[in-house]
Specification:
By secondary structure, the chain is of the alpha/beta class. It is built from 12 helices and 16 strands. The N terminus and C terminus are likely disordered. The structure holds iron/sulfur cluster (SF4). Its cofactor is [4Fe-4S] cluster.
């Protein structure tokens, strides 16, 4: 959506760093690397051979903003499902393949947008790399070299003693070199570890040694709360240095949650246009209104409003007017009333009981002024807006 000026100075900041220069590959219709925006991806949790369930989950992921989806291919039945899934998916499908070279060829023939292979079990692929490179090149299918600490090449495990950053990077670059010997460079790389410190060090090392686009991931990051924190800090450290071309948040949670977190991380760094953002104060002893409830009600009321809008919900007059003035729309509460700000100006003061409905009304008015048609039925169905606590 094209942002429309609201008549006030922009409150957005620039991205935190210039992107690392990387070569660009195409994962189906989605460019990865170069000057392409950092994309968000996830992986289905269904049995791939269950085509209907897999396509249903891909549709849910697509609706949540997922741009690339990966499906596991551990069996012949899964491989046989790939042509239909690749054809019917609205977003590029990557086949995730371990151990069995024959499934790599099946995925390429099936029309998958890319194939992920794991150097940890690549020895089975070693004598097939030439054929894989030829088939992939002939079909314009890139390969992700996906190194994972949990399945590191035993030779490197023996050499380094454990999955160190150096071991992860050596594994990835060694595998790349096998493909390069056949003139194949349509590659992206991941070097995942469950420890964000090791993971960040590995990606930094890797970024300095090649120009391949990088797929960021903290593997086995854990349940939603822990995984979100690990992914946010690790991706944040790397993205703040311009490292990272596509991201996958791994959570022990429904994959749609991974997309919400991934998008939130990119929006936080202005690597993606922010949607609706609620700036709410954490509340304190000065609060003259129930800020938590107010913020939740405003969030619930505006969920589904897909416009770049910052709404400030503040508990008192200390920082309230300042934050509310800086936002597109805001309220500074006090004495049972709320001062409503639009475009930096106080437009009215309403009783506390009318704050939520007034903010929602004004948000819809702003959306209309931006030429955005709002279907009120949509307002409760999509993920909630980002909430920033000042
Ligand atoms: S705006 Fe700041 S000072 Fe006022 S209630 Fe919220 S946290 Fe406290």
């Amino acid at each position: 959506m094209t942002p429309v000026a609201l008549g006030i100075p922009s409150v957005r900041t620039k991205p935190i760093a210039d992107r690392r220069v990387s070569r660009q590959i195409m994962v189906g219709s989605v460019p990865v690397g170069g000057d392409a925006p950092v994309s968000v991806q996830s992986m289905t949790t269904t049995v791939t051979a269950d085509i209907n369930s897999t396509l249903q989950q891909i549709a849910e992921l697509t609706a949540a903003g997922c741009q690339i989806v990966r499906v596991a291919v551990p069996s012949q039945d899964d491989a046989e499902a790939l042509p239909v899934i690749a054809k019917k998916s609205q977003i590029p499908v990557i086949a995730d393949i371990h151990f069995q070279p024959k499934y790599v060829f099946a995925a390429i023939e099936a029309g998958c947008a890319a194939v992920r292979v794991n150097p940890g079990n690549i020895k089975k692929f070693d004598d097939k790399v030439g054929e894989i490179a030829k088939a992939a090149a002939a079909n314009g299918v890139p390969i992700r070299i996906g190194v994972n600490a949990g399945s590191l090449d035993p030779r490197l495990l023996a050499k380094y003693g454990k999955a160190t950053p150096e071991a992860l990077v050596e594994s990835a670059l060694w595998e790349c070199s096998l493909f390069e010997e056949h003139g194949f460079r349509d590659i992206k790389i991941s070097v995942k570890h469950n420890d964000p410190v090791v993971m960040v060090q590995a990606y930094r090392l890797l970024a300095a040694q090649c120009d391949y686009p990088l797929h960021l991931g903290v593997t086995e990051a854990g349940p939603a709360f822990q995984g979100t924190i690990k992914s946010a800090v690790a991706f944040g450290a790397l993205l703040s240095e311009g490292i990272g071309d596509t991201i996958r948040v791994s959570l022990s949670a429904p994959p749609v949650e991974e997309i919400k977190v991934g998008i939130g991380i990119l929006e936080s760094f202005n690597l993606r246009e922010r949607g609706l953002e609620i700036v709410s104060c954490p509340s304190c002893g000065r609060a003259q209104v129930d800020v938590y409830t107010l913020a939740e009600q405003v969030q619930a009321g505006l969920t589904g409003l897909k416009i770049p809008l910052r709404v400030a919900v503040m508990g008192c007059v200390v920082n309230g007017p300042g934050e509310a003035r800086e936002a597109d729309l805001g309220v500074a509460s006090g004495n049972g009333k709320g001062q409503i700000f639009v475009k930096g100006e106080v437009i009215k003061t309403v009783p506390e009981s009318q704050i939520v409905e007034t903010l929602i009304e004004e948000a819809l008015r702003l959306a209309e002024a931006m030429g955005v048609e709002i279907d009120l039925d949509d307002l409760d169905e999509s993920p909630g807006p980002e909430v920033t606590v000042h």
